[in-house]
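>> received
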Amino acid sequence: MASGLGAIILVLILVKQDVDRSSPETELLNADLARIEQQDADLKRAIASVDQDSLKAAAAITKVQAKISDVKSELIQKSDQLSQKALQLSAVKKTIKNAPKAKKDDVVRSDPGGEEDYIMGIKVEGKRIVFLIDSSASMTDEKLIDIIRRKNSSALEKKSGPKWKRTLRIVRWLLARSPKSSQLAVVTFNKQATALGGGWFSSRDAAALGTVQRDLNTLVPTGSTNLQRGLKKSVALKPTDIYLVTDGLPTDGISRYASLNPFAACGSLLGKSNNISGLCRVKLFRQSVADSAPGQGTKINVILLPIEGDPDAAPEYWRWTAATGGLLISPASSWP
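>> returned
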């Protein structure tokens, strides 16, 4: 009996010792479990963040793809427009190439093609048309150094100046496109003014036109630019339209400017200087127009050829032509 009790006591002691040893192991397992659960939570958060970034990236890709699609559509549209423009340009070139030459009954022949009445919006029209042509020394060349060189050269050199030869082509172009029912006059001016052919002639009068063209061919561009004399000569003819061919503002006038306060500082107009400033040329132009230009009802058109050092010419002539219902053009060097 005693031995049986001892055995039971021994078993209880062994069980207690095993329980004491298992407690630390359980704690370690619990710690490992907690760490793994934390790692799982962290991984889930990371996966959620990646999923969110993926959604944003997908939205951005969709937006970029839509923009690419829009650009492709625009490129296709532009390509179609360019193709249409190319076809139109080809048609225009073909029209120009096939344009008829001047008719046999034209009194004045102008080599550059066809029966066109327009050049950059300007049309030759009117019942009584004066072509007012600047024949001053500056009409020989564009650069001042070349103009000065030709001033001191022979008459043949002056007449051979590229701008003067172009001026003669322009006059032929204008004469060739004048209405058949119009009366015409050609007035040239430098320091003086002259009506070629004596005054009015019919646009269909071949003999008168031939005389005017011969007179033009004998002119030598020289002297100062006295627009006032040209206007006075033109106004005396009572035109309905004036077509002025020039290259800049005037350098000479005939009014008594010494008595006018705006010209007090312009010594060149008072005989005290050989040069005229840009400001004085503007004042001279405005005074010449105020003194001598035709009244309301006469349309002024200006063909302004290039010259070095006269930037005020274009705006001044533009204001004048616009006030009369006319036009100012500064044509390309290839015209006519």
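>> Residues 286 and 316 are 8 Å apart (CA to CA).
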